[in-house]
Amino acid sequence: MKKIIFFICANLFLVSSIYVYMPIRKAQAVDIGLSIYPPLVKVVIKPGKNITQVFKIENRSTDTKTLLARIIPFTSADDFGNPNINPGSTAPWLGYFSLANSKISLDQPFELKAGQSDQLILSVNIPADAPLKDLYATLLVTSYSNTIDTKLIGSSVSATIGSNLLISVSVQGAPPTILKIVNFLPESGKYLKIGDYYFLDNITPVFFTALAKNDGEYTAETKGVFKISRNEQSPIELQSVLPQYVLSRSQRRLGTLTDSKFYFTPSFSMIGIHSVELDIRSENSNASSKIEVIFFPGKILIGIISALIFIRLILRISSRTKY
Amino acid sequence: MKFSHLILITILTLVFTVSFSGSSYADTLFSNSFFINSSTVNIGGGQIYSPSFGLDTTVGQTAQGQFGEAGFVIKAGFQYVHPFTPFTFTISNLDINFGSLVPGTPSTATNILSVTTGSAYGYAVKTIADHALRIINGVTTIPNTNCDLASPCTITDASPWTDDARYGFGYSMTGDDVDTTDFVNSTYFRPFPMQGVDSPAIIMSRPGIATDSAAITTYKVNVSGSQAAGTYQNSIQYIAIPAF
After folding, report:
1. CB spacing of B233 vs A303 below 8 angstroms
2. What does CATH list as the number for B88-242?
3. Is A155 touching B (CB cutoff 8 A)?
4. Domain residues of chain B, as ranges?
5. Alpha carbons A224 and A222: distance in angstroms, whole number
6. In chain A, which residues have pLDDT < 50?
7. Which residue, A202, B53, B109, B133, is most buried by CB atoms nearer than 10 A?
8. What is the pTM of this model?
């Protein structure tokens, strides 16, 4: 009897040990992770020339994925640099693009194992008679499947990742652009405008917004500075404008590395007329804009007036109660 | 005026001034004590010109000199492989399986979308479906949702979908970089745009750097008692594109 009890106990211990210490393989949902580098390429190229650009694609999924690479044109979707793409769209100049890989072609599926990466060698051949203009395209890499599990009641999900190509077909290294700064204003609701002057409180943080508008035929760049100064003296505030691309015939919000605005906290001593300037200078883009602001102690004055009214009220009430 | 009055005025002035002050931006990095020179924060990248072409690289690269050092010409036309962070997109679950559908009882399923912009500056994730949920080897579909009758939704405008007598298929979004003015709460849904008919709809976006921004997509289907029995399927594509 003791042997039987010992045997059962030993077996229970063994089984429980297996459950506790052995790694249990859990059922996992199928997932996908894709990465691409570089996410943006800007090229200026002469007609009749060609270049190649390597894109690194990585499969960060837990299993092998079948992928499909293709090129589609895009346009500017908004003021924040997002492309407006439609997977079904096409353009006659898409024929300029091809992959120089030996085993991978555009619009043909290829496999990439879990955790592995591959290079897509994109070749851009510009014909000698190609029109001089900008070409905006996105290299899309899509997880590809031509069948859906017949047991699935619902949706089969696929992932697409992209990298943008800004190609200027030009005979000049820095093709000309027509860049303007428009809608350069302090934060809405925080200023009073009289004539050309913006009145701002001198102890309230404020931000300025502006748009760069490109009326030219080629992509412009927004390298430059945001500057606040008084009496043309050395700047009180100097911020770097985030270098971004403004597509032909589009506009883009200017900002810094941290935001699409220019934040400024004035100091207590800042009273009077100040110049707020935006100056864009790059190889092919020059634009500047200036507004005059008057910092004044608005909140302090309101505080003093309120305090005086309050004191006067107290004095009047206290004098009445005496008599 | 007595001295005590002057002190009182001063105190009250401070109190009222502080009361009238608006919100402050404590998290901004700018001050009057320093400035950033444009040439040191140059994420626009460097440029190379030859008689035949010029080439700029990724916005986000910070070391312009690497072009020359890496030897662009030596790589026989290949630009050097940048040692910077890639643009990454992940989806947690590729099979949105509702199982058996019960008429008048909505079924839901979720997955998670994550984006890291890496060396890109800003991004958008868009979605599009190939068609409505459609029976295998047939033409019968579960229609795309119009949400509640009182406030119909569209492919770009989410609206509440709480009425179990309203049938269809749609999705809701919550999490990072989701437009909360559109997807106000978990009852707000949209129908999927259809390939060949609509353009992809933006579901996540950020005009700056994103590190592992994650959002949950909730899929919801509700069928009527007259819906034909069968297995209904479609394909949904999520497109993650960096800003240019």
Report:
1. no
2. 2.60.40
3. yes
4. 1-83, 88-242
5. 6
6. 14-28
7. B133
8. 0.78
